[in-house]
Amino acid sequence: MRRQTAIDMGDSRSAVVRELRVRDMRRILERAQDLQNLAEVPITELLSTHLPELLGLAADSLTLPPETSIDDLSVSEIVAIKDAWWALHADFFAPVVALVKARLATTLDAPLTAPASPASRPGM
């Protein structure tokens, strides 16, 4: 049985967030593997290339009120959906997020300057 959470959107409307299935998680992890150089990809390319696919994954795990699309949602509604989604999936994705953050920190902490020339080293 998939766990689910209903989000009250006011005006007698609600959205339902359902737990992802193993096949969904595998697809997410496969896509993450393909995006190892994510920091180098322009945000517009990320949105146009990968957002539709991610929304496709969400289509089966997110039910919006009748005649409502993602474009109709307010920022606060999206935040509520995100919080509900994370509550359902944190056990699986928290270690993955921690690993990605650690790798990004290592990459971003790498020196951006060239090594010192021999003339500037002591004793040379």
Summarize the structure.
This protein is mainly α and 124 residues long.
Task: Note down, in words, how this protein is organized.
This protein has 124 residues and is mostly helical. It is built from three helices and three strands, in the order ββααβα. It is 54% helix and 10% strand. A hairpin with a 5-residue loop joins strand 1 (4-8) and strand 2. It is globular and about 50 Å long. The mean pLDDT is 77.
List keywords for this structure.
mainly alpha, 3 strands, globular, 124 residues, 54% helix, 3 helices, three-stranded antiparallel β-sheet, 10% strand
Secondary-structure class: mainly alpha
Shape: globular
Assembly state here? single chain
Order of helices and strands: EEHHEH
Unreliable runs, pLDDT <50, ≥5 residues? Answer: none
Largest sheet: 3 strands, antiparallel
Rg calc: 21 Å
Strand content: 5-15%
- Bin the helical content: 40-55%
